[in-house]
Amino acid sequence: MLQKGFYIVTAETLVGANDLLLEDDNIELILCDTTLPDGSGLDLLHSQRNLAERYGTLVKSRPLFILTDSRDLATEYQYRQEGVNDYLTSPVNIPELIRRIRYFIAPQEQIQAAE
User: Which long-range contacts (CB under 8 A, 24 or more apart) does 107-115 make?
Assistant: First the structure.
């Protein structure tokens, strides 16, 4: 990912991820597993939605991808119903992941270039 020009920040916990997302407005996309030590990917999705609803345009809306080794179809269905932007199971095809990330980031880059 770094070789393709992506800057990556990591968080080990739900609290850490939420803190990073509040502190760094340059984060454009979230990659998350279904389980974290203190919550889930759905918890992160819901907390980001709550912040966006509370603060409106002051909080950037970011696409959320789930990357997991879980192949449970009920879990995938639940995440998709909740509105995650993409759900990928391992082994992940890295070129495909990069293509999908660029698909979601490109509109933001085009908007910024036009300003």
Answer: 108/28
Pairing of strands 64-68, 30-32: parallel
**Interacting residues of 61 by C-beta distance below 8 A, sequence separation 6+:** 48, 52
C-alpha–C-alpha distance, residues 47 and 30, integer Å: 13
Query: What are the pLDDT digits (tens) for 40-96?
Result: 999 999 998 888 777 776 566 789 999 999 889 999 999 999 999 999 999 989 899
For residues 80 and 51, the answer to whether their CB atoms sit within 8 Å is no
